[in-house]
Amino acid sequence: TWQKSIDTASGAVISDSVITAISTNNWFDPKLTRAVSDFNAAKVFTLNYLWDIPTPKSWSGFTRSAAGGWELGGIFSASSGEPFTPLLAGDVLGQNNTDSFAYPDRVPSCGNSLTNPGNRDPLANGLPYIKLQCFVIPPLATVNGVNYIPLGNAGRNILTGPGLINFDFSVVKNTKIPRISEAFNVQLRLDVFNLFNRANFNPPVSHMFIMDPTALVPGTVAVPGPTGACTPPAGLKADPANGCIPNAGVLDGGDNTATTSRQMQVSIKIIW
Length: 272
Hints:
The structure is a single chain. The protein is mainly beta. 4% of the residues lie in helices and 27% in strands. It is built from 2 helices and 15 strands. The chain has helices at 61-67, 122-125; strands spanning 6-7, 35-36, 44-52, 70-79, 83-84, 87-88, 105-106, 135-136, 141-143, 146-148, 159-160, 164-176, 185-193, 209-211, 263-271. The radius of gyration is 26 Å and the shape is elongated. The relative contact order is 0.18.
């Protein structure tokens, strides 16, 4: 499946139905949030199969009952990641709203590559999932002697989270006992979910706020974020040079995974 869904908000009326949703939108200008939907998965592929392994006709009796009756099954799923939004922390636009949002500015030289795919642990490789060097706090605008931070041009849902790949596998052994009845069957089944134990991470929604303008001295111009994970000096809320928040854009345990780790299930079913 290839698809594209566009809207101005994807949340339900009472609460947000998607974890990547911006919880409070700017209702004065819907164009500010017009983008691909929070649930938009541009590419989805699913393959499932069930194979009844043939039993040689020459087999009979105990051999046919013990060595025959095997089935293999599987479901393979792959999809692109869900979109999410890089945000600035705090009431940047002065809306007097504790649940406000504001966009940073994009650095033009970064092009369309705004994430580091596969980077999950900032302590292991020094890179967050979001390319912080591609974003900057919008420069201050002074009106009547008052400094304001304008809305950045990054926009809603311009980033795409990690993709998902999952394979569920099953083995079934059917043992028919015609002496009891024609339909009597003892079925032994093994199901393995996420066979390859792949970690399918959700987007870094707990670290979508990547910069804090309050960390900057008023009147200074913010520089792009660092190339690595944000590690501000001890005692500071964020890096005073670029306003980068600690652990900004990082994939970690706080976001959990979209699928469980490998799980196995054994069951016996009697059919008569």
